[in-house]
Design brief:
282 residues, Rossmann fold, 2 domains, 9 helices, 33% helix, globular, binds adenosine-5'-triphosphate, ATP binding, P-loop_NTPase, ABC transporter ATP-binding protein, AAA+_ATPase
Length: 282
């Protein structure tokens, strides 16, 4: 079942001096239980897309369905949005969450549970003004998850986190996926996309330039050189998949000359750079 279906979305920002095409004919769909990563560098239209999907911005043309229909007040009951903060700066972590819990009529046990999962429980009485950017980020995620939404739209959920907290949030997102939640997230981090996303969309200059599962893209863009060996004498050798090369690798292995052996599939970063090479700015 498609939880999100987007068809030919276009959005331009216009002012007196210039028109900026932020989204150019974007189409994709997301299935229940999928994590979709929208990736690309700064300014390619990721936030614009999320703003449209969350009803904060109208597209110029195109359509989308979300959670089985057009966006309405009811949609928000099952939608978790993590974008700009909007936290109550002078209130504590816990009070910020309690306020939202009361609005959604949620038991305060859920607040404590989320604070523990995101490693904020010990800091629960600290005011938002005194939080580090990583702590704020985790608080925002708690607020997004509070009402147990079916669909999460997360704008760079790990952008300000240290490695330990990044791993914790990745684990949390994977757990939510296993529970059947659907997640769309934006990221600049290609490694993150590779590790946690079922599929990724590469955006460039407002257009979808590639879409697919990370491992499928890696196979699709796999270079001719397939294996890289370091010999015990420190020499580096590269091999393709021809019969001759494979026989050479086998001989080196048999003669115990090999120190390390790696396959050379590209990273998502390599693929993105390959796709945009030669692209001009609009
Ligand atoms: N309100 C606006 N008025 C004019 N131009 C805008 C407006 N909002 C965004 N843009 C431009 O539209 C393009 C897409 O912006 P958007 O914020 O969607 O990019 P992004 O991929 O989310 O970037 P980042 O990763 O830096 O958040 C950018 O060139 C941006 O400067």
């Amino acid at each position: 079942m498609d939880v999100v279906q987007v068809s030919e979305l276009c959005k331009k920002y216009k002012n007196k001096y210039r028109t900026k095409i932020a989204l150019d004919n974007i189409s994709f769909s997301v299935k229940k239980g999928e994590i979709l990563g929208i990736i690309g560098p700064s300014g390619v239209g990721k936030t614009t897309l999320l703003k449209i999907l969350t009803g904060q911005l109208l597209p110029d043309s195109g359509q989308f369905d979300i959670l089985g229909g057009k966006i309405s007040q009811k949609t928000y009951e099952n939608l978790g949005i993590m974008m700009s903060d909007g936290l109550y700066e002078t209130l504590s972590i816990k009070y910020n969450l309690q306020l939202f819990a009361e609005i959604f009529n949620i038991n305060s046990k859920r607040v404590d549970q989320l604070l523990k999962i995101t490693d904020l429980y010990e800091l629960r009485n600290k005011k938002v003004t005194k939080l580090s950017s990583g702590e704020k980020q985790r608080l925002l995620l708690c607020r997004t998850l509070l009402h147990q939404p079916q669909l999460l739209l997360l704008d760079e959920p790990t952008s300000r986190l240290d490695p330990k907290n990044t791993v914790a949030i990745h684990e949390l997102l994977s757990k939510l996926k296993r529970e059947g939640k659907t997640i769309i997230l934006t990221t600049h981090d290609m490694l993150e996309a590779e590790q946690i996303c079922d599929r990724v969309i590469f955006l460039h200059q407002g257009r979808v330039i590639e879409i697919g599962r990370p491992y499928e893209l890696k196979l699709k863009y796999n270079p001719k050189v397939k294996y890289e060996l370091m010999l015990k004498n420190g020499e580096f050798l590269k091999f393709t998949e021809t019969r001759g090369d494979l026989l050479q690798i086998s001989a080196l292995l048999e003669n115990k000359k090999v120190a390390t052996l790696h396959t050379c599939e590209p990273t998502l970063n390599d693929i993105f750079l390959k796709l945009v090479k030669g692209g001009k700015d609009k």
